[in-house]
Amino acid sequence: MRGVMSKRLFAFFISLWLLWLSACGAALRLPLPADLALTAARGPQQMVAFLYRDQQGARLVSSLSASTDPPVPLEPPEQQVWLGEVDIPANLGLSTAGNVQYGMVIAQGDWQPAGQYGPGGVWLHALVSPRLQPFTPETVALADLLSDTRYEGQVVRLRAALIVATGASLLVEEIGPGGVPATTARQVKLLYGERDQALLERLQASGAARFGYVDAIGRWKQGRFEPLLLTLAP
């Protein structure tokens, strides 16, 4: 009897531990697929990514443009991770646009040696036996990023004004007419702020500058925000 009770208690605590890990997923500082693609990664790996599936198959990507129809990855295939035909867990809650499904996940699996994967062999990296769980970034304010070091290296979500001019990209708390930042508004610089050209074309224009409020998912990295998905705020 004691042995049975011990096994049940062990299973109970393991279940609690797994639930805790799931709840703390937003606190994980995990690499993106593009990070691992730059290394000589081998064997078991874990990453935060967008799961992206179209008629070619499924893969893991670091960033997307949802301002195109359908949405498309912003990295070339050599920075993506091929999954192929995989069973998609129902709890992932993927978005659908045309023949494309996408959503944020934490992915684990066996990272394969560099090769030629997928249709035409255009993907250099692959993950086999993938295990996928949903990931919801924590919603924060710009003030939180600037004042709290615990967000370093994390993927988060926020709403702010995006301003893109020649050679400069900013997220700003508040803007006025013509995209001018409010006097006391906090602001942060963006990495690769001009990458999503389809989104920029949908922003307001003032001379060479583009501006507008966006919902942003991205990684806070050494005082700058690396956007992974930008969409126009309603």
From TrEMBL:
This is Uncharacterized protein.
